[in-house]
Amino acid sequence: MKPVIALVGRPNVGKSTLFNRLTRTRDALVADLPGLTRDRHYGEGRVGSRPYLVVDTGGFEPVAKDGILHEMARQTRQAVEESDVIVFIVDGRNGLAPQDKTIADYLRKSGRPIVLVVNKAEGMRYSAVAADFYELGLGDPRAISSAHGDGVTETIDDALAIAYAGRPEEDDEAANTRGTKIAIVGRPNVGKSTLVNTLIGEERVIAFDMPGTTRDSIHVEFERQGRPYTLIDTAGLRRRGRVFEAIEKFSVVKTLQSISDANVVILLLDAQQDVSEQDAHIAGFVVEQGRALVVGVNKWDGLDSHARDRIKHDMQRKLKFLDFAKFHFVSAKENTGIGALMRSVDEAYAAAMAKLPTPRLTRALIDAVQFQQPRRKGPVRPKLRYAHQGGQNPPIIVVHGNALDAITDAYKRYLEGRFRETFGLTGTPLRIEFRSSQ
Ligand code: GDP
Ligand code: GDP
Questions:
Q1: pTM (2 d.p.)
Q2: ipTM of this predicted complex?
Q3: CA of 105 to the centre of ligand 2 (A)
């Protein structure tokens, strides 16, 4: 599981500026997807070999009793409780504000480790910036500038050292699971627990592991048609007797963690409700993470053909950025469509893990260019020479050549389509990176 860093602080201290800086490399990878809906409060970052999830908790209003501010405060508290480390941001230009003290008290009570940073410190002397904030009782503050980037990497390094302390190496974790790792995600009440129970009747469960603390996930190994799977479920299921049931309020953080830990995500939607912004945000995160995806449109039972047409149309409109994924219309309760859904899971896994040999990739590239050349940009025409595979889950295809920064998004999508067709890549995002040799 990737550790979670929560950015906390009162409004205007620079949380979203810092968030954008931490997640920017991911942004660049998915920026050109038409219709992609993104939640700017949750993202992924990486320092060296250490990935992490980062949450911008928004404006912190601990005093609000009800209304929208109250709900924001609830989500903030949840993010704080679920984080591995808190980056508490204060404003070096404004100095200490009364609200900073309230927040500091609250954070201390949460028991989570805290890294205190004074933002907007560019061009200021450390002693002058820091002096005000010792009073918070959180030790030496770090001075950073989110806008300019000063001190940001060092701060995240420190936060990650805390978050990763005592964690097993990634290889150990991987060795503990068998088969395709699946996450079943979706809004509350779409039918996740019902699907889990349908998928893995008691007899199919091989191993069931629920480590002692509530912060850990439940992993369930099971077999279907002789194939092994591990269900990654951090969306909050617990086992009562023979069945699994939801234990807690919907958690965005845990949903994101299970997505990033899975090979294939099953995104469940409720056919009896419209596609919501939350559905689209979860889908957006699957794409950003590059996870293979199968969409299950659940509760298909009991709908007339008019309702079915309407929901299909709604999905095509709101989720068009998921055109790489298969949609299945299922009933978890009545166990219809589940076999086909799982076949698509297998297909998506195979695509995500496909080995794409350089000669075949290069052949496909050259064929694609012969069929349709990239446009000139001014006097230069991009020249595409060869391609190799740069990664799996998602597959990354690295295209080499000259003047490749002149390649348009439309041409990139054209190439993606050609590669998908040639290699039969259904159900996984595909990333194409360009590397110019001059
Ligand atoms: P949030 O409300 O905590 O998310 O704060 P924002 O990220 O929206 O930033 C609030 C304001 O502070 C914006 O006008 C930013 O441009 C500015 N700001 C953010 N970081 C810095 C910084 O490092 N230095 C300076 N001078 N301004 C900053
Ligand atoms: P979760 O919160 O996503 O885990 O959702 P649950 O599995 O607890 O299901 C929420 C409600 O939807 C329950 O009342 C289920 O009985 C119902 N439900 C789940 N799957 C189906 C289905 O395929 N068809 C219908 N009609 N109801 C379903």
A1: 0.87
A2: 0.90
A3: 40
